[in-house]
Amino acid sequence: GVDGIMVMPALVYSAKPHETAAHFRSVAGATDLPIMVYNNPPIYKNDVTPDILTSLVDCENIVCFKDSSGDTRRFIDLRNEVGDRFVLFAGLDDVVLESIAV
Question: Which UniProt keywords apply (predicted)?
Fold first, then answer.
């Protein structure tokens, strides 16, 4: 069976922030499985910003966030925005130290 799912943003076009949030909200509403949101803007051309993630705090089954943006401040910004609501994962070796520090 499946214990959880990792969900990427829409890949077909560059979405607006509210569209990206709606995408994740729609997936969260369609399953009871725990969800990890995966952010990789250099590849997907859509950035799941701290503001977008903050708008998803009420989706109880969104539990993790994996960031591959390469932005070393992202983990601090996320922690300031959402506290410990989500488990945060570094998707790039370059930002592992920053992710562990927060």
Answer: Lyase
Three-state secondary structure call for residue 44: helix
Q: Which residues pair with 67 in a beta bridge?
A: 39, 90
pLDDT tens digit sequence for 15-50: 999 999 999 999 999 999 999 999 998 888 899 999
Its CATH architecture, for the domain 5-101, is: 2-Layer Sandwich (3.30)
What residues are annotated to the active site? Answer: 38, 66
3-state SS assignment for residue 18: helix
Three-point CA angle 45, 16, 99, nearest 5°: 55
pTM of the predicted protein model: 0.88
- The secondary structure element, H or E, covering residue 77 is helix 74-82
Q: Which pair of structure tokens corresponds to residue 71?
A: 């932005």
- CA separation for the pair 57, 59 (Å, rounded): 5
pLDDT tens for each residue of 43-78: 888 999 999 999 999 999 999 999 998 887 888 888
Domain ranges for the chain: 5-101
